[in-house]
Amino acid sequence: MMVKLQDICKSFGEIDILHRISLDIDKEEIVCILGPSGCGKSTLLNTIAGLINPDQGDIQTNIEKIGYVFQEDRLLSWKTVYENIRLVDHSKSAEVLNKLIEEIGLKGFENYFPNELSGGMRQRCSVARAFNYQAELLLMDEPFKSLDYFLRIKMLKQLINVWENEKSSICFVTHEIDEALLLGDRVIVLSNRPAEIVGSFKIETRQKDRKLNSETLVEIRSQIIDLLFESGNSI
Fold it and tell me: How many structural domains does the chain have?
């Protein structure tokens, strides 16, 4: 087990954000945290990262390296795609880095600067940089939020391609149901603030074999929507 959260609670001032969150993340597993905007998903991710201390509860982890992909790409504007990716680990050979660049869909753009790339391409570079760091756990905070629907789906497929080779554990925060269904080995559903876990769904189908119109995913999607409406929430 990579991470174990037990009864995590967190408040900011008089606002309760997280309430008794218990969650495990296993090795080489993708866990998607799904919930309405503003419910505390990012706070939960920052708690896992050790950036925020919980008010109550316990966190156990045996992880030495954690990577983080934010909603913004946070690339260095004066460095090229290749240089931005190499920045976190200078020990990798050019062959290894170029293979990663090709897997994430940026082949041919190695020498481009961030201001010469589209938003989607900058996020691909950010994801590749995180994988190059070779973190045991990769935290992703709605990294494709600013992209249109079809580009998000394309980005998810490229993320899956890289993950199948790198096999980091991933905790992926989103408020998009389709993203969670296509990516997660498990989908954890949070209520509105203060966030509680109201549902957990394990998806056995291999990511590359999933189709949103399959009977399994359609049924899980329906259950997730019901849970959100039952708790007075909407995505």
Answer: 1
Tokens representing residue 37 in the block = 């905007």
Q: Which domain holds residue 26?
A: 1-65+144-150+171-235
pLDDT band at 157, cuts 50/70/90? confident
Between the alpha carbon of residue 75 and those of residues 107, 108, 152, the distances in Å are: 18, 18, 19
Mean pLDDT of the chain: 90
Pairing of strands 137-141, 169-174: parallel
CB 39 within 8 A of CB 193: yes
CATH number at residue 190: 3.40.50.300
Helices (H), 70-198: 81-86, 94-103, 119-132, 149-166, 177-183
Q: Using one digit for the tens of pLDDT, what is the confidence trace for 45-57? A: 999 999 999 999 9
Burial of 107 (0-12, 13-18, 19+ CB in 10 A): exposed
Question: Which DSSP helix (H) or strand (E) runs through 33?
Answer: strand 30-34
Residues 6+ apart with CB under 8 A from 12: none
